[in-house]
Amino acid sequence: MKVLCIAETVYQLINAVNLVVNDPEMSKAEVDLFVRKGHFANEDVYLERIIKERIFSAVNRYSFKDYSKFNFINHLRHVSDILFASRIIGRACSIRFRPRKYDVILTPNGCQFFKYSVLCCKKAVVYCYEDGALSYGNVNWIEREVSPLSKKILKITGQYKKLLPERVYLYNPSFFMKSWETDVCKLPPMKDAVKSDLMHRIFGKPECDYAGVKTVFLSQPAPVSEKVTQRIAKGINVQFISRLHPRNSQNLCIKGIIDHSSSLWEMICAEYITDSHILIGACSSAQTSPKWLFGKEPYLIFTYPLYEDIEHRFIKVSEEIVTKTRIMYQNPDKIAVVYSVDELNECIQKFLSAP
């Protein structure tokens, strides 16, 4: 079996490595990895180590032009790219792309590379692997991310049905709200994978000790406002560790103990985060991953209502994530959504004093 595997974030990369190394079927397949260029920190280091370990048959990096700003010229370019998808992928990866050799497209979501792959890999079926809490929704997250124009072209070319993956790999299959017929498979447990020597050789061990401080502030990139993030962090009146997102600007200044390490959050969760930690953030997979990946239940405080100018879609997605995480928690009272900095501090004190 020949597989085309897509990864655009380090979280997706670690899940892809886990799947290809530890899943009985995928470990026997010939898997080519395609990674979005310049999209996460330490990309060169991780990929160099992955190549050294010979996990994938080939490792390629791609970069597409950004046509997200809508105007007539970009619209025409977008249409042209879709019509000549195979050539565009080859150019984006600087390789001669051979779409006919692939039996499976393995993707975390409906990203641009997936869309082009579906158009030119006509005989390939589509499998998905987990990309955080949204992968468990009652809406097909792949179809949701593909633009209306792309959907029309996929219908014309007879490839639209591939937006309904034939197989989905998840860490917690029992929580998947299936809305179409698909084979739901369990991903090899992350808590076992991160302890392996292989994962440590690729992604390293945690360099920052989170054991001594129980409150952790997690920043996020756009669409979350950095000014509001700064105001919230400034208002916290207890000692905390700040974990800054790699795509935050250099101007983001947050008090507290700063984690300047390049350690993967998943490794930190496995090593240090406990049920007594408090994770504060607008709403991110970093807050939910201790539970989703390792079965731990730290206190969670979501601050997304404090971001007045945030887009409506982010609010709806955040509400969906909070609802799903509360269902998963044995004690849902450990999860709070706050609407002011004063309420945030009250919540922190309440959680710190909990037995």
Could you provide a short overview of the structure?
The protein has 355 residues and is an alpha/beta fold. The chain has 14 helices and 13 strands.
Can you offer a commentary on this structure?
- The chain has a 7-stranded parallel sheet with strand order 3-2-1-4-5-6-7, sandwiched between helices. It has a 6-stranded parallel sheet with strand order 10-9-8-11-12-13, sandwiched between helices.
- The protein contains 14 helices and 13 strands.
- Helix 2 runs antiparallel to helix 9, helix 4 (85-93) packs across helix 5 (112-120) and helix 11 crosses helix 12.
- It has 2 domains: 2-203, 3-Layer(aba) Sandwich (Rossmann fold); 215-352, Rossmann fold, CATH 3.40.50.
- The model has no long low-confidence stretch (mean pLDDT 85).
- The chain is α/β, with parallel strands linked by helices and 355 residues long.
- The protein is globular, with a radius of gyration of 21 Å.
- The protein has helices spanning 10-22, 43-53, 72-83, 85-93, 112-120, 141-145, 148-156, 190-193, 197-203, 226-235, 265-271, 285-294, 312-328, 341-352, and strands at 2-7, 30-36, 58-62, 104-107, 125-129, 167-170, 183-186, 215-218, 241-243, 257-258, 278-281, 299-302, 335-337.
- The termini are far apart.
- Helix content is 38%, strand content 15%.
